[in-house]
Amino acid sequence: MERSEYGVMYRLEQFYWWFVGKQFLVREQVKPLLSNRGTVARILDIGSGTGIILKTLEEFGQTFGMEMSREAIQFLKNRNLKRLVCSDAEQALPFKNESFALVTCLDVLEHLDHDKELIEEMLRICEEGGHVLVTVPAFNRLWSPHDSVLHHRRRYTRTRLLGRLSGLKGQVLKASYYNFMLSLPILAVRKLRAFFPEKGKGQSDFFIDLPEGLNRSLTALYKLEILGLRILRYPYGVSLLMLVRKPCRERKDA
Question: What distance lies between CA 100 and its chain's CA centroid?
Answer without folding.
Answer: 17
